[in-house]
């Protein structure tokens, strides 16, 4: 998902038009729609200040705006390889199924990453048990820091 796709997703999620979003960002009514359209179609990238403003309007953490662009399986695999390099995440095979796990050989990241994955699993389980709504789950995901 590109940054433009992400902006469009969050804008639609809160029910704003491009013009409304542009005006909320401080652009004039004459340029607001064009500016947001440029962000969404990728012809213009928001500056860091504009990105922070967008995150604030969407009520998400700025990190939620900058997800990697994983548009095909090759890019997905390269992202997984980068996670292996940086955080010791690796595939393992258990009873014929492949899972991602944290390599316990790297003690620096093990506890922290396992804790984060446990927290993610618990929030997802709470949603699946109808203890929280999809919207509450999404709010947790998009505001995770």
Describe this structure in words.
This protein is mostly helical and 145 residues long. It folds into 2 domains: 3-65, Orthogonal Bundle (434 Repressor (Amino-terminal Domain)); 73-142, no CATH class. 61% of the residues lie in helices and 8% in strands. The chain has 8 helices and 2 strands, in the order ααααααββαα. It has helices spanning 3-13, 18-24, 32-41, 48-58, 62-65, 73-87, 107-128, 134-142, and strands spanning 89-94, 97-102. Helix 1 (3-13) crosses helix 3. It is elongated.
Helical content band: 55-70%
Largest β sheet strand count, sense and barrel closure? 2 strands, antiparallel
Compute the average pLDDT.
92
The helix/strand order is HHHHHHEEHH
Record keyword descriptors for this entry.
145 residues, mainly alpha, 434 Repressor (Amino-terminal Domain), 2 domains, two-stranded antiparallel sheet, 8 helices, 8% strand, elongated
Give the secondary structure arrangement, pairings included.
Blueprint: H1 3-13, H2 18-24, H3 32-41, H4 48-58, H5 62-65, H6 73-87, E1 89-94, E2 97-102, H7 107-128, H8 134-142
Antiparallel strand pairs: 1-2
């Amino acid at each position: 998902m590109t940054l433009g796709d992400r902006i469009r997703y969050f804008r639609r999620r809160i029910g704003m038009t491009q013009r409304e979003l542009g005006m909320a960002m401080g652009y004039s009514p004459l340029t607001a729609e064009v500016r947001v359209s440029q962000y969404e179609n990728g012809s213009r990238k928001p500056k860091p200040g504009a990105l922070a403003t967008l995150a604030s309007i969407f009520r998400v953490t700025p990190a939620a705006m900058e997800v990697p662009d994983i548009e095909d399986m090759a890019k997905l695999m390269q992202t997984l390889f980068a996670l292996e390099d940086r955080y010791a995440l690796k595939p393992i095979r258990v009873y014929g199924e492949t899972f991602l796990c944290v390599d316990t050989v790297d003690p620096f990241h093990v506890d922290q990453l396992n804790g984060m994955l446990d927290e993610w699993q618990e929030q997802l389980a709470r949603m699946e048990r109808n203890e929280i709504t999809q919207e509450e789950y999404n709010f947790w995901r998009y505001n995770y820091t």
